[in-house]
Amino acid sequence: MRTKGLSYGVNNDWNVTWLLMALVKKFPKDNWEEALTHKRLAQIQPDSKEFIKMKDFFQNLYLGKPSFNGQGLIDTAEKKMYTDAFFPRLKTFGVKMAVVTSRPADEALYTLKVVNGLVGEFIESEHFIISVGSQNSSGQLIAEKPSPEPILECIKRLSVGLNEGVYIGNSSSDYLAAREAGVDFIQVGSSRIERAKEPQGFHYFKLENVNRLVPF
Fold this sequence. Notes:
By secondary structure, this protein is of the alpha/beta class.
């Protein structure tokens, strides 16, 4: 679903849910792959009442807003992929850090700032978090992955060159965004990513565990 449905922006649960509902309504399950490959479904309408309601439901579920008893999945179900020593160790190398995420701003900030405590100490400020709804210096919305735009915006904000940046991710959207931006990519985890049309000078690495990124 997340591989064949890339053109529909399946970077989050509400987009995937919308896509599943549309497929169930229009096609037998055996035809789903063909329908996605040949884009036989209309694009998502993010301003529609149905989509906004679906997105709000997931946001409430994650952030723990009523009617979910004030505690959400971010607090109760998300597990850190890194050890407590990972970011302090990375910081000793003088690495500049920024985040590109398909999460909306409220959810992204809550996760990075409140739950994980990364903003300020390891990520310099919220300026270096690009999420759904983020804008560039001209006030224009920054496209979501798999567009390379959010990664290029991160490179600009970090004031580094393309050959100095590395993007770490775990999905096909992450890979495509990095490849099109011309920024080296490190895949973490075992997700299936189809590699193709990599430009000269582009490097791809794969780690089963993000903690292997730095020596301890």
